[in-house]
Structure formats: structure tokens, C-alpha cells
Amino acid sequence: MTKTEEFQELRPMLFSIAYRILGSVSEAEDAVQETWLRYQATSTRPGSVKAFLSTVVTRISIDVLRSARVRREEYAGPWLPEPLLTDPYEDPARSAELADSLSMAALLLLERLTPLERAVFVLREVFAFGFPEIASAVGRSEAACHQLAVRARRHMDAGRARFEADRKERDALAERFFDAFREGDVDALTELLAADVSMIGDSGGKAPRFQPVILGAEHVARVLAVFVPLVIRGAGVVEPRRVNGQPGAIFRDRDGHVLSTWALDVLDGRLQTIHTVNNPDKLGHIGPMADAWVALREARQAHRPTA
């Protein structure tokens, strides 16, 4: 196989590793591209192309994450991962781990880890790399990687999200939720909310938003009561999709341009968390972007009663 063929075969895995370390589609794509450039520049053939490329993309991702953490601490409002609609890497033997590690809740837990802990956790727990491979990838001894893995697993288990509802149950509830949304049935929406539901929005200061974090069924219901008519009357489109492996939707304007994504966490037959990403910088990979301010103004005008 040529270098190009070898790289393209491993590219889905490399992106999936980088995305889980970085929580950013654009940064993961850049890390993969840089990995390719470095592979192209090598004059000798590595004994294991997979090990070599995994090491390169991991080290690049760790370096990027270290600088990104500073920017995320200064971010305007809550920071959420860039939504991913489809994971390009598939491994039937690791399907549960791959899906679990992709959710918004899991990626936010990973934000609590140090860059090294995060990389070790991703390589070990998600992709089942051996410790010799991990040690090579992160530039630490195997003993140190064992310790990093233990600490990372302890942090993840301590904060593990409770959202482990059966997939069919989650999908059925999400279908009811978005059906009610499109029908403008706020009462039906409210019935699906857990008492302690939270709605977390990431606009990055670049798009309209309600409060950054809204807690409790009563408060979330009030937001939905305002937001639903704006979408319906403004001829917006609610497109149910899996977002980060969870039931969710893409919200589009009347021309089909992207406004935001929603991802739903479900527990005990109720919505526990709604993660909304509205920052246009995080949505460009999904499709052409709408001007959210224009869409909001048009929706309000359409909703305004006529004399």
C-alpha cells in the first residue's frame, strides 16, 4: 500500500481519537491533517503505521488541548463540544465504548481531566490500546500511564452521568419531544421534562440565546413556551438527528441553513439535560450557516399579532 492508502485507511480512527481528546471537530481535522503532513515527511517506513500515526495524532492533540484549555476558561458563557453527527470510525468490538465516549455528558467529563489523563483514558478505555502503545504515544513510562489511567477512570466514574437509558427508550422520548415541538404543543413538551432538568446553551457570545444555564422544569418550560412559537411561526425546520450519539436535532431557518443543534440526555423516561450549541463557529461543518439574528427578528415579526 502507498502512504496515501495507509493513511486514508486509518484516518477515521485518527479523527475519532483526536475528537475525543479535543472535543472539537475543526481542531480534530487540523490535527489529522498535520499528522498526514508529518507522515509524508518521514523518510523511513515505521514498523507499525497504526502505532506511528496514533502517536503523532495523540501528541498533536495533547499540545492543542493545552493551549485550548486557556481559551475555554475565558470563553463567553458555557463551553460545549462541537457537535458531531457521525463518528467516522466503527469497531463492532468497541461499539459501546465508542458510543458512550461520544456523548456531550462524557465529553464534558473529559474536560475535567488533564491533557495527559484525557489522552490515556481515550486510548485505553475507548480504543483499547495496550499500555506499551499508550506509553509511546504520550511519551511517558508504562507505570506512569497506569497511574494516569487509574486517576482518569476515578474522575470519570465519580462524575459519570446518570444518562444510561435504553437506546429505544431515549429515541422514543426524543421523537415525542420533537413531534410536540413541531406541533407547538408546549404542554406535551413540559410533560417530558424531569423535575431537575437543565438546559445549557453555548453561543460563545456570537448568537442569540436565553440564559446560559436554565435549571428546573418550570423555568425550562417557560423558555420552551417562548421559543417554540418563534420557531414554528418563523417557518423554522426541526430536523431530528443523532447528535454525538444521542437523540437530538438540527434547527434550520426557512432556507435550510443551520441555526443550532440540540442533544438530549434521557433518564427514567424524562429529559434530564438539553445541550444546545448556537455558536456559528462550532456549526459550520454541518452545513451553510443562517444569520441567527436575522432569523430571530423575522420569527418575532411573524409571531407579533396583527391589528
UniProtKB/TrEMBL annotation:
Lineage: Bacteria, Bacillati, Actinomycetota, Actinomycetes, Kitasatosporales
Organism, scientific name: Streptomyces litchfieldiae
Domain RNA polymerase sigma factor 70 region 4 type: from-to ranges: 105-156
Name the UniProt record assigns to this protein: RNA polymerase sigma-70 factor
Keyword annotations of the record: Sigma factor, Transcription, Transcription regulation
UniProt-listed NCBIfam families: PRK09636.1 (NF007214), sigma70-ECF (TIGR02937), SigX4 (TIGR02957)
Pfam families xrefs: Sigma70_r2, Sigma70_r4_2
Keyword Oxidoreductase included in the entry's annotation: no
Highest rank taxon of the organism: Bacteria
Stated family: Belongs to the sigma-70 factor family. ECF subfamily.
Subunit annotation: Interacts transiently with the RNA polymerase catalytic core formed by RpoA, RpoB, RpoC and RpoZ (2 alpha, 1 beta, 1 beta' and 1 omega subunit) to form the RNA polymerase holoenzyme that can initiate transcription.
Domain named RNA polymerase sigma-70 region: residues: 7-69
